Amino acid sequence: MVHHANAMSSCPNMAAILANPAISKADSIGFAGAMNNMSQQHTAAMADRAVGLGGPVIPQAHLHRTTYMQCIDDEVARKEAQGRTEVDHLAAGTNVVGFRVGGQWEFWWQTWAIMKYKRPLMAPKGWFGHRRESGGLGAAKLLDAQCFWRQ
């Protein structure tokens, strides 16, 4: 059994993130309310499932935002180290999927993002009129994928 808890109503809104972009980072205290809300949802779901299954549900793995969103912060830092300015992600997401491999289960996550940034004047792609990468349809890049549980 896999369940997902989301608490967007407890996350910083766009105005707060624009005013202070640091609160959108993976380990930001700005998401403490959402993390607490999700923890409560997890505890409630475990109790609910235990009643339905007639016994305790024993957690096998946890996957938290600080793990799967870190690659976005790393990509922003990588672009900035290349001299890019106005670096940000326009959209991002994480998928979680389970595979049956040789009679056992593996659960993986993958995180993608659409980045925007401005290249320096001397960047080779900038020589050909591509100074500003503004994201858009088809511009998503897979940033990381990892197995987080095997049975």
Give an account of the 3D structure.
The structure is a single chain. The protein contains four helices and four strands. By secondary structure, the chain is an alpha+beta fold. It has two domains: 1-59; 60-151, no CATH class. Strands 1, 2, 3 and 4 form a four-stranded antiparallel beta sheet that branches. The longest helix has 22 residues, at 32-53. The model has no long low-confidence stretch (mean pLDDT 82).
Q: Note the gap between the termini.
A: 13 Å
Q: Secondary-structure element order, as H and E?
A: HHHHEEEE
Total domain modules: 2
Structural class: alpha+beta
Question: If you compute it from the alpha carbons, what radius of gyration comes out, rounded to the nearest whole angstrom?
Answer: 19 Å
Report the sheet-strand fraction: 25-35%
Let me know the largest β-sheet. Answer: 4 strands, antiparallel
Number of strands: 4
Low-confidence stretches: none
Please work out how many helical segments DSSP would assign.
4
Helix content: 25-40%
Secondary-structure blueprint:
Layout (H helix, E strand, L loop, with lengths): L13 H6 L12 H22 L11 H4 L1 H12 L3 E17 L2 E15 L13 E2 L7 E10 L1
Antiparallel strand pairs: 1-2, 2-3, 2-4
